[in-house]
Structure formats: C-alpha cells, structure tokens
Design brief:
With 304 residues, the chain is an alpha+beta fold. The chain has 2 domains: 120 residues, Aminotransferase class 4, branched-chain amino acid transferase, N-terminal domain (D-amino Acid Aminotransferase, Chain A, domain 1, 2-Layer Sandwich), CATH 3.30.470.10; 152 residues, Alpha-Beta Barrel (D-amino Acid Aminotransferase, Chain A, domain 2). The protein is globular.
C-alpha cells in the first residue's frame, strides 16, 4: 500500500488506513479548503521504543496558523494527541513522514469558510530520500508563484499547491527533476515544494519572506545553523542569473531536507558543494539527537 502506515488518526480516533473514508461531496475536495503539515521522524538510535521528531513545536504552530487562515480552530493539544496516538498505534521501526491535515469536512457546493464544519486527520508513510541526495536537475517553470495578496502564502493551504503540481509535472515531463518558480516580480521564489539557497563567495543567500515564499521550517533551521557555523546569510530578492553563477545551489524542505542542485536548464553547476555538505551533515546530526547546541529542536514521542 505504497508504504502507508496501517493506522491513521481520523474523526477523533485511531483506525485502520483502509477504513478512513471521506464523502465525494466533501467541501475540501472540491475547493482545496484545507491546510496541511509535514513532519519527519526517525527511530531513536539510542532507544528503539521512541521516535525523534524534528521541530515538532514549529510544525504544530504553523499548522495552527494555517488553520486560522481557513477560519478553523485547531489546538496544539489536538495535534499532539493525534501524533502520539498514531505513533503508538503503528510503532514504526523506520524513518517516517506524517501528514496532518485540517479540512472543511462539510458536504456542500458553496465556496465559503463560514458556517462550515472542519475536521482534522493524520496519516503517515515510510520515507527515505524524497529527492536524490546526489543532486537534482532543475528548470525555470513557466508558471508563476502566486502573490500573498491573492491567498495566504504563509500557510500551507492545499488549494495553493495546484501551481506547485503544474510546475513539477512540467519539469519532469520536460526531462528535469524539479521546477524553480519565479514570483510576479520576476525574482527567484522557490521550488515546487522546497525553499532555495545559493552560496556565493562563502555567503548564503535566499529569497526573503517578502518574496511570496513559504516560510519554511527547514529554511529557518538552515539559516540558524549556518550562522552558528560562522557563515553569513542574507535574505533578499534573488535574480535568476545569480543561480547560474552561484558556487552552490541547494533546496530545503521537510521532505527534501537539504538537496543539492547539480544543473539548471543547460547550465551544469559545480559538483563540489562543501558548504552544502557541511550543512547536510549538521542537519543529520541534529535530527538524530547528536548535536547538543540544537537538541531542543528534537522532540521524543514514545512508541509504547
């Protein structure tokens, strides 16, 4: 079943994946009126009866904020209850990815966010590398990232991901692994589901939060990590040609973690990425609970 965990959190309780069903008239299905999160967890290398979650508090906070954009109420307690229940029910022994979703569960055809029922679910799947750790090829998408004045881009709103889906398929069907989207001002924005960094002369540069990006949690973590390691980080508008001249380019995200970009369109980038590799190693150490400086980024959830 594509590596899905056998038990999910649905309608306030744990139940088998195969039994969690939605009506074909569900509002969120028709209008994208939902918000989601994505969390990675790994078995604790030192204690097999617990899972280590990366930045669980930040993910919960963003999901609550995203729900608020949809006029939906979701508490940290609800999120944590669901996560703990799913982990105990499934007792995973491999790295996993959890997908919490708050959605309009009402049945109806009027596009609205008032006087409507909402619900919350969590399912999961086994996940190793989402993108190749050896690097990916990218193209500039013909699709433009939406503007924050058109919908709340600081939330992970399901309906917004139609642009990401179009860009990803366009890239793959034209022979590339990933897409790079520009914003409406012609500046570099992000990939289909990842933020983007470039390295020039030992300094990291990444599109600022006013460039219509998703305020990624892994992005913020990389910025903090890099500065703690002595690297400068500049958040600003980034031009297209800067990517082609960069010493290193990499993508960040919960699923992608830190993934190097090896080519953009017809431009081959250097295969030497020392700063990218150091950041990847540091992030791995943090997620495995081996880094004392950032040990508060890791939350323990028991499987028993």
């Amino acid at each position: 079943m594509h590596g899905f965990l056998p038990h999910v959190w649905f309608e306030g309780k744990c139940q088998p994946f195969a039994e969690a069903k939605l009506s074909i008239a569900t509002h969120a299905l028709h209008y994208g009126t939902a918000a989601f999160g994505g969390l990675r967890a790994i078995p604790d290398p030192r204690n097999g009866s617990q899972m280590l979650f990366f930045r669980l508090d930040r993910h919960a906070r963003r999901l609550i904020q995203s729900a608020g954009f949809l006029n939906a109420s979701l508490s940290r307690e609800e999120i944590m209850t669901g996560i703990h229940a799913v982990i105990k029910a499934n007792k995973p022994q491999v790295p996993i990815y959890l997908r919490p979703l708050v959605y309009t569960s009402d049945l109806g055809i009027a596009p609205r966010l008032h006087n409507i029922e909402t619900d919350f679910l969590i399912y999961g799947l086994e996940m190793g590398d989402y993108l190749s750790p050896d690097g990916v090829s990218c193209r500039f998408s013909s699709w433009i990232r939406q503007e924050d004045c058109s919908l709340p881009l600081r939330g992970k709103i399901s309906g917004a991901y139609i642009t990401s889906s179009l860009a990803k398929t366009e890239a793959v069907q034209s022979g590339f692994d990933e897409a790079i989207l520009m914003n409406s001002q012609g500046k570099v924005c992000e990939a289909s589901g990842m933020n983007i960094f470039i390295v020039r002369d030992g300094t990291l540069h990444t599109p600022a939060v006013n460039q219509d990006i998703l305020e990624g949690i892994t992005r913020a973590s990389v910025i903090t990590m890099a500065r703690s390691m002595g690297y400068g980080v500049v958040e600003r508008a980034v031009d297209k040609t800067e990517l082609l001249l960069a010493d290193e380019v990499f993508l960040t995200g919960t699923a992608a973690r830190i993934t190097p970009v090896r080519s953009i369109e017809t431009t081959e980038l250097t295969t030497e990425g020392p700063i990218t590799e150091l950041l990847r190693q540091r992030l791995q150490a943090i997620t495995e609970g081996r880094d004392e400086e950032f040990q508060d980024w890791v939350s323990v959830v028991p499987t028993e």
